[in-house]
Amino acid sequence: MAISVGSAPPGLTLVGVGPGDPELVSVAALRAIRAAAVVAYPVAREGGEGMAAAIAAPWLEPGQRRLPLLFPMVPEAAPRIAAWHAAADALAAEVAAGQAVVLLCEGDGSLFASSSYVLLALRQRHPHCALRVIPGIPAVCAAAAAASSAGIPWPLALQSEALLIRPTPDGAAELESLLEQAAGAATVLALLKLGQRWRWVRPLLERRGLLPNALFAQRVGWPDQLVTPAVAVPPEERPYFSLLLIRQGWPPVLP
Ligand SMILES: C[S@@+](CC[C@H](N)C(=O)[O-])C[C@H]1O[C@@H](n2cnc3c(N)ncnc32)[C@H](O)[C@@H]1O
């Protein structure tokens, strides 16, 4: 694909780069990345590499300027709001200076992503900044595909089923009630931010007889990907990049 660095017109493009495997970047994403003069990406600490930047690394060009944007992962609101505002201001300043800028987002930029806050901050603070959004493959879809590829068919939703993508609840009572609601409403659950919660989530699922219905997925798309029936994963802390799919029933009409 012969696209020269900086050949895109001035503007900001939010680019979803998928969950880990650089091959899962879309053609549109690849074109936007290649044509950018400035490549921005989230980092959780000063000097950090950034997940999205690591995913897109094979597609970056030496002539592109890197712009790491610090989004601290802290519970307090003030530092997070300040970071979103600072990121929006920095990106808008690059665009105002005539640059073609991409902001890389892990997975899809509309799902629990820093780029969504940047999008909101931009609309508020720099409403005239030229902006485009390119979707990416969410980790949940990549996990289902990886399971199906491994011989564990995992359609996310069929017929009148619902799919609920949300963070794993913080406590057992909340998860119990979520499981009951999901069972009653034919809802498949996709629980993100599983990591340290797996310690208590696993015994809870086992007590309810739900372990055979659950799929565990960790670092999907990375060389050390682990996608396996949840029963195979001991109740220990897992990495932040892990999720759980729970299907408590199937529609009546199936092949
Ligand atoms: C802040 S959310 C980002 C979601 C992302 N924007 C997407 O579209 O998938 C982070 C959570 O997504 C899940 N996640 C993201 N990438 C993952 C991966 N490669 N493997 C497993 N889970 C992942 C994990 O549950 C993690 O805690």
Mind telling me the CATH superfamily name of the largest domain? Tetrapyrrole methylase, N-terminal domain
Question: CATH class of the largest domain, please?
Answer: Alpha Beta
Derived from helix and strand composition plus strand pairing, the structural class reads alpha/beta
Please tally the β strands and state the result. Answer: 10
Low-confidence stretches: none
- The helix content is 25-40%
Strand content: 15-25%
Tally of helical segments: 7
Largest sheet: 5 strands, parallel
* Strand order across the largest sheet: 3-2-4-1-5
Mean pLDDT: 96
Number of domains: 2
Rg over alpha carbons: 20 Å
Q: What quaternary form is this? A: single chain
Ends apart, CA distance between termini: 42 Å
What is the molecular shape?
A: elongated
